[in-house]
Specification:
With 300 residues, this protein is an all-alpha fold. The protein has one domain. The protein contains eleven helices and two strands; from the N terminus they run H-H-H-H-E-E-H-H-H-H-H-H-H. The chain has a two-stranded antiparallel ribbon with strand order 1-2. Helix 3 packs across helix 8.
């Protein structure tokens, strides 16, 4: 087994990844509660936005980095909003499987576009430029990058802000009402289409932000960006039963931590990518067992 000092750097990187998975998972939960659609294109939209940001930064003349970041985040919001406006009403009355497959189709389209527009070249190194790159501080002899701090902080802030938004704002209250009964909420005068559009746009903004952060934390790789975000954030959202953003946040941090803490353990590092599936399966089995025992006591 590796020593404690071997694990320390991966605690920092795991928490940073967990922050990215948290803001992604929160976006998935809010959109699902407002529209009933499980947005499997989350990672693909963020990845495409990250590649666009990288392309902007490569333009001659030295385009400012902040412009590329805005373009990436705005791209995620616009694509999600456009998809929601065009296909959202048609998907509203369909089953969960149809809704999930429809967004998976958007994933495949964007994944193909990335492969076509930014083909992989041997030895080519891609990275998004942040003003925090190379800067940071040391904690217990572990180097902490400011981007890692930003990723974790954003996960915390967005989770808290989203919880407050759903609880105290009129739009958030409408989203919670739609999660309980969409038709009755509409009959009460709530503008369902506008609420759904707001949920799509907000989820898209978070997808662009997640793609941007993950591209800097790991690598600007299409497979990593498209599937890592959506698989890990979906696992966290499932642990939260697609309802609780607090449980989703905690689950995302655990998934990020466990995923990176496996890295020094050479015996199982090849199974590292199974982390989200294993943790989600264990959590769901434990929660299902708890519900069964509770019901048996009530019936007894």
């Amino acid at each position: 087994m590796p020593s404690w000092s071997d694990f320390q750097p991966f605690i920092v990187s795991g928490l940073a990844l967990g922050g990215v998975y948290a803001l992604s998972g929160v976006g998935l939960v809010v959109l699902y509660r407002a529209t009933g659609v499980l947005y499997l294109a989350f990672g693909a939209v963020g990845a495409t936005g990250a590649f666009i940001a990288w392309q902007v930064q490569q333009q001659p003349g030295g385009w400012p980095g902040w412009l590329s970041w805005i373009i990436c985040i705005a791209f995620g919001g616009v694509v999600a909003l456009g998809y929601g406006v065009v296909f959202g009403p048609a998907l509203a009355g369909r089953g969960p499987l149809t809704q999930a497959v429809a967004t998976l189709g958007l994933t495949l389209v964007l994944f193909g576009a990335i492969d076509l527009l930014w083909p992989t070249s041997a030895g080519q190194s891609r990275s998004i430029t942040f003003p925090t790159d190379g800067s940071g501080f040391t904690v217990a002899q572990v180097q902490v990058d400011w981007t890692q701090v930003i990723a974790l902080a954003l996960g915390v802030v967005i989770t808290v802000a989203t919880g407050a938004f759903l609880r105290f704002s009129k739009l958030g209250t409408a989203m919670r009402a739609m999660a309980n009964d969409r038709e009755i909420t509409g009959t009460l005068g709530v503008p369902v289409r506008r609420v759904e559009a707001a949920a799509w746009f907000g989820c898209g903004i978070l997808s662009g932000l997640a793609g941007l952060l993950l591209a800097d934390l790991s690598a600007l790789d299409d497979t990593t960006l498209v599937f890592t975000v959506v698989i890990s954030s979906l696992a966290a959202a499932l642990i939260g039963r697609l309802r609780s953003i607090t449980v989703t946040f905690v689950a995302a941090l655990v998934i990020g931590l466990v995923h990176d803490l496996i890295t020094p353990i050479t015996q199982i590092v090849n199974y590292q990518d199974m982390t989200p599936f294993v943790l989600a399966a264990i959590a769901l089995l434990v929660m299902s067992r708890g519900q069964v025992m509770t019901r048996s006591r009530e019936e007894g």
